[in-house]
Amino acid sequence: AIRMTQSPSSFSASTGDRVTITCRASQGISSYLAWYQQKPGKAPKLLIYAASTLQSGVPSRFSGSGSGTDFTLTISCLQSEDFATYYCQQYYSYPRTFGPGTKVDIK
Amino acid sequence: QVQLVQSGAEVKKPGASVKVSCKASGYTFTSYYMHWVRQAPGQGLEWMGIINPSGGSTSYAQKLQGRVTMTRDTSTSTVYMELSSLRSEDTAVYYCARDGIIAAAGTWGWFDPWGQGTLVTVSS
Questions:
Q1: Which residue from A27, A64, A107, B96 puts its CA 20 to 30 A from B57's CA?
Q2: Could you tell me if B121 and B10 are in contact, meaning their C-beta atoms sit under 8 angstroms apart?
Q3: Which chain A residues are within 8 Å of B114, Cβ to Cβ?
Q4: First to last CA, chain B
Q5: Distance CA A51, CA A62 (A)
Q6: pLDDT per residue over B26-47, tens digit each?
Q7: Are B95 and B79 spatial neighbours (Cβ–Cβ below 8 Å)?
Q8: CA proximity to A21, closest of A69, A75, A58
Q9: Are strands A97-98 and A85-90 parallel, antiparallel or unpaired?
Q10: Which 3-state string (H, E, C) describes B34-83?
Q11: Which of B47, B95, B114 lies nearest to residue A95, judging by beta carbons?
Q12: Which of the 8 DSSP states describes residue B32?
């Protein structure tokens, strides 16, 4: 199985900050990577697929980049509604695997 | 709009089985694969398996082989996930999630949308 790692595991930030989360795959996955946002008690929500394609309806302050083994999710100007946990997921092969998550909370 | 609505919370004893349903609407049910994902309390996301609603074929995570069964009912646009021989470690929220790419494309993608989740508690 492809192992996904994320860094950092958590951090505190302020509204207006630019934040970057990193995701790494244990082997190359081309651009078969998605990013999800999850708020407490809610289902995950798709933000980005194909490493950099913004899902319809997702604010443009979210962006993704990378290919192969290294990927990043960037939030250009953090808003109050962005405090959540973010997961990366590879869909290059089965079993589908997720990163352990990055929790973004308020400083 | 595309919507997945899951059945309600369950409390089960160790050794029992649970069957969770996921009713799809807003799209052609047989055109997209469906996945199941679970999340233990305070933990990350774990992929459980996939079902093709058209032909009923399935593929399961190795860890759950022999205990999980995914089925579908095309007449009601509903997929089911049954987990047997429950143990405390199976306590989790269980989600269904539609694959992001139409099945006819011959490949599989991301997960979107997701059901609201079903809490399954295993406790004696």
A1: A27
A2: yes
A3: 43-45
A4: 40
A5: 12
A6: 999 999 999 999 999 999 999 9
A7: no
A8: A75
A9: antiparallel
A10: EEEEEECCCCCCEEEEEECCCCCCEEECHHHCCCEEEEEECCCCEEEEEE
A11: B47
A12: S
Give the span between the Cα atoms of B88 and B92, in whole angstroms.
9
B36 token code pair:
């199941």
Q: Which two tokens stand for residue B6?
A: 């899951």
Nearest CB to A91; choose among B59, B108, B113: B108
- CB–CB of B2/B68 below 8 Å? no
- The pLDDT tens digits of the residues spanning A70-80 come to 999 999 999 99
Which chain A residues in 70-99 lie under 8 Å from chain B, judged by CB atoms? Answer: 87, 89, 91, 94-99
Residues 14-73 of B with CB under 8 A from A: 35, 44-47, 50, 59, 61-62
Which amino acid makes up residue B77?
S
Residue type, A96: R
CA A21, CA A3: separation in Å to the nearest integer? 17
Residue in B96, B111, B119 to test binding to A, most A beta-carbons within 10 Å: B111
CB atoms within 10 A of CB A100: 16
- Chain Cα centroid distance, residue A1: 20
- How many angstroms from the chain centroid is the CA of residue A41? 18
